[in-house]
Amino acid sequence: MKHFTQFENKSLADSLIEKALFYKSNPSIDNALGEGKRIGCIFLNPSLRTRASTQIAAINLGLEPIVMNMDKEGWALEMKEGAIMNKGTVEHIKDAAAVLGSYFDILAIRAFPSLTNKIEDLADFTFNQFVKYSGVPVISLESAIRHPLQSLADMITIEENWAKKESPKVVLTWAPHIKAIPHAVANSFAEWAIGCGHDLTITHPQGYELDESFTHGAKIELNQSKALEGADFVYVKNWSAFNDYGKIVSTDPSWMLTEKHFEQAKEAKVMHCLPVRRNVELSDEILDGKRSLVQEQAKNRIYAAQSVISKILG
Amino acid sequence: MKHFTQFENKSLADSLIEKALFYKSNPSIDNALGEGKRIGCIFLNPSLRTRASTQIAAINLGLEPIVMNMDKEGWALEMKEGAIMNKGTVEHIKDAAAVLGSYFDILAIRAFPSLTNKIEDLADFTFNQFVKYSGVPVISLESAIRHPLQSLADMITIEENWAKKESPKVVLTWAPHIKAIPHAVANSFAEWAIGCGHDLTITHPQGYELDESFTHGAKIELNQSKALEGADFVYVKNWSAFNDYGKIVSTDPSWMLTEKHFEQAKEAKVMHCLPVRRNVELSDEILDGKRSLVQEQAKNRIYAAQSVISKILG
Amino acid sequence: MKHFTQFENKSLADSLIEKALFYKSNPSIDNALGEGKRIGCIFLNPSLRTRASTQIAAINLGLEPIVMNMDKEGWALEMKEGAIMNKGTVEHIKDAAAVLGSYFDILAIRAFPSLTNKIEDLADFTFNQFVKYSGVPVISLESAIRHPLQSLADMITIEENWAKKESPKVVLTWAPHIKAIPHAVANSFAEWAIGCGHDLTITHPQGYELDESFTHGAKIELNQSKALEGADFVYVKNWSAFNDYGKIVSTDPSWMLTEKHFEQAKEAKVMHCLPVRRNVELSDEILDGKRSLVQEQAKNRIYAAQSVISKILG
After folding, report:
1. Could you tell me if residue B4 is inside a domain?
2. How does the annotation summarize its subunit structure (chains A, B, C) (predicted)?
């Protein structure tokens, strides 16, 4: 594995999950693996869990993390090939990524989508420019269209909470939100859940259809109650429209899960990547109750990152 | 000692002071104590001394510090229970504090007051929400109403500069300032000076009465000259009004200490927590002269933090 | 060597270059040199390469780096002696620098010029106030008038790319830019190139004369083509006017180097400190071609810093 940017195959996913669970029991066991090496964590956008968990994962492996908030401590990067840089951008990604690549053994990068330029977002343009020009292994800390460390943590969490032989019924349900939110978490979760062999149903109000290249293999059921019937895991997430790109086409509050939504799924666990808008996306009742796995998911972010870095280090 | 948020009792204070002085002579002696452990330093407000000294204290103990500027690198936190989060706040303290608590062995938090919502400030609401939901030991890096690491450093500094058997006469004097400043340093200094058995006099223009729950046991003397008579240590600090909450009710420049204020206190030492507004709160003459202990106080911030972290670790 | 703020003499420069090349081959060889010591990296301005390379250099030497973005995480500093601080500045450099000096074994500081107050800029006022009041060795991470770590990295790069006995012909050429840019890199490069015995020619449109105290010993040739004839190394850099201080007096695009500028300097290598405005200062063709040494220069920033810190540590 050179880069970690998306789901590759079930065998690799299984091995990453297994390694993560091993590290969860033995966080410091490989603390000499990264000796004398460095990971540069480049943030073009804000972060809480990802920032902390990636640093901790690196430290657990003896790797030195250096965090850079490019947007705040550095300057605006130019992404376009051949640009005549006589406007606001100060440094071209070609130069900046190559320098960072020469300074670090691994780069980890967060680059959100514009939600306005669909073509560039779909090409994961900013993120891929880093990959193209840095010349070193790159880990996605959430790109325009994927959040694979989150999804790996999610798969670990499902693994820990599912003892049966048959595949769990996993439901990804859209939730209301007041802002236009990227598709990265929803895309990645679908990609990983399907790839890992879970029985995935996706439900959302009309107009919130996701990019089919991520959802191929999932059932789509626009009736939320029907979708939830018999669910083992319910993944709650808002996203903006994909077809009417980046738009909010409904904020229907009835889609916010409350205890009464679980009449046909008494045992279902509830997942969310956080940050969550309480009582907008998910009710306090659910988040503070027994169904919630959100804290387990967050904790597993450390071991997901540790597993990935370890695999890249070799 | 689980948390470090305020003065507890003289015996604990004495033991923290003693340990701090020991570390000042032997900074690296316990550099394996924090091995494999982490402290998360969460700043909701700016910092210079506190930021650097807490990191250094942690490193001296072999503990890995990770600093997060929540306000700049993260997002706005919701503090209210049961909030419907359809406005500017992105994550509830319930979720964020629990995640941080699961990532770190100790959390250190800076959360200034609003100076507008007296009830919430007095309840130290933001800070206490972190304590309530993180589930791990929490160190105050200055809360709405207290700055205990500063006060501990101040007590260490007095200890180092006082050889006599009897208690020193300590005067806390209000000083002019152009902005409305929190009560945290003044409250905490009073709490610790009284608790440590010093003979404390507080002086300020009428209207700047502090919260009596912190000053019980101190003499209040509104005549500054009288208050300063025979002082051994003069602690200079501005604060805004407590009764007319958060207001500036006087900026009388005669309250700024100059050499002529010390005619009845020839040997008095002068203290200030920094940052200080020169020639507004305190004259250059005093700050650059022999009376000033401000640099010693600042240096002792390292050992105060090191003593506290060490006590929490075990 | 106590501070590292400028070119001192050829013998010291040679020894720093030699040490840097040694560290480039053996980055971790002295990783116990800085044990138990700390370097504070204080940024009053943004940074990418300097921020990362200085941290890496410190880590390579076992020295703990702590980065502080004073402008963003701290507050505005007052620089003027005797100031009555009743305006926007929160802490005097006297106090802040002394505290930082008591916390760290070495300070590294970035302080850009105003480009409006020529007298203060020429006196390197902000930077020198740090030096004056910190009491510890100070490394310049770019001051108002010099960028010596960049120049040292540049000299290392020339050393690596020049095998002949005679001095190389080095040309410093002004390049167009859309903003008013400091003189620090140009000044320092001239100072170091001349001091290291290179044959330096400086070329620029009329009105962009540099401060003669840095260029004494260089040929000045206002005809760019003539200047470039027979060049071995061409250092490209924009700067604003020095006489008409801080002004943009020409943006003549013909000064941007393209391949056709090298007809009389077929073998010339091209250097730039980065960040570079592509297709404004330098063409893609040059930056992406074989002449470009910009990535080598950037990489050498690590070893320049490592050499300097090592020399200061003793």
Report:
1. no
2. Homotrimer.
Residues 6+ positions from B120 with CB-CB distance below 8 Å: B114, B126, B144
Is the pLDDT at C238 greater than 90? The verdict is: yes
- Phi, psi of A40, deg, nearest 5: -100, 120
C interface test, pick of A43, A94, A103 with most C CB neighbours within 10 Å: A103
Q: Are residues A107 and A168 in the same domain?
A: no
**Does some domain include residue B151?**
no
Same domain, A14 and A140: yes
Give me the residue from B43, B69, B302 closest to C103, CB to CB: B302
Residue A66: closest C-alpha in chain B = B66
Residue A68, both tokens: 């850079």
pLDDT on residue C254 = 98
Q: What is the pLDDT of residue B273?
A: 98
Please tell me the predicted confidence (pLDDT) of residue A193. Answer: 98
Among B85, B99, B102, beta carbon nearest to A280: B85
Q: Across the interface, which of B64, B68, B82 has its CB nearest the CB of A51?
A: B68
Question: How far is it, in rounded angstroms, from Cα C28 to Cα C25?
Answer: 9
Residue of chain C whose Cα is closest to the Cα of A88: C178
| Beta-carbon separation of C295 and A64 below 8 A | no
What local confidence, expressed as pLDDT, does residue C296 receive?
98
Q: Are A95 and C43 within 8 A, CB to CB?
A: no
C93 and C180 inside one domain: no
Q: Which residues of B touch A288 (CB under 8 A)?
A: 94
In a domain, C183, yes or no: yes
Is residue C147 a known part of a binding site? yes
Residue A291 in marked binding region: no
Is A83's CB within 8 Å of C56's CB? no
Residues A23 and A114 placed together within one structural domain of the fold:
yes
State which residue of chain B sits closest to C77, comparing Cα positions.
B275
Q: What are C181-229's pLDDT values in tens digits?
A: 999 999 999 999 999 999 999 999 999 999 999 999 999 999 999 999 9
Read off the pLDDT band of C72 (50, 70, 90). Answer: confident
Cα Rg for chain C, rounded, in angstroms? Answer: 19
Closest approach of chain B CAs to the CA of A216, in angstroms? 31
Reported as a single tens digit per residue, the pLDDT across B270-299 is 999 999 999 999 999 999 999 999 999 999
Give tens-digit pLDDT for A158-171. Answer: 999 999 999 999 99
pLDDT tens digit sequence for A32-49: 999 999 999 999 999 999
pLDDT band at C58 (very low <50, low <70, confident <90, very high): very high
Instruction: Tell me: do B305 and B255 sit in the same domain.
Output: no
Q: How confident is the model at residue C65 (pLDDT cuts 50, 70, 90)?
A: very high
The pLDDT of residue A45: 94
The verdict on residue B207 lying in a domain is yes
Q: What CATH number corresponds to the domain at position B264?
A: 3.40.50.1370
Report CB contact under 8 Å: C49, A83. Answer: no
Are B273 and B176 contained in the same domain?
yes
Q: Please give the tally of structural domains in chain C.
A: 2
Beta strand spans in C181-292 (E): 199-203, 219-220, 233-237, 269-271
Using the 8-state DSSP alphabet, how is residue A138 labeled?
A: E
Give yes or no: residues B73 and B197 share one domain. no
For A208, the domain range is 162-292
The CB density around residue C179, as the number of other CB atoms within 10 Å, is 11
Residues A99 and A219 in one domain: no
Closest by Cβ to A52, choosing from B68, B75, B85: B68
Closest residue on chain A to C302 (Cα): A103
Distance from CA of A218 to the nearest CA of B (A): 30
Average pLDDT over all residues of chain C: 97
CA atoms within 13 A on the CB side of B36: 7
Q: B272: annotated binding-site residue? A: no
User: What distance, in Å, lies between the first and last C-alpha atoms of chain B?
Assistant: 9
Which ipTM value was assigned to this complex? 0.96
State how far the Cα of C63 lies from the Cα of C113, in Å rounded to an integer.
29
pLDDT band at A151 (very low <50, low <70, confident <90, very high): very high
Nearest to B66 by CA among B107, B9, B26, B25: B107
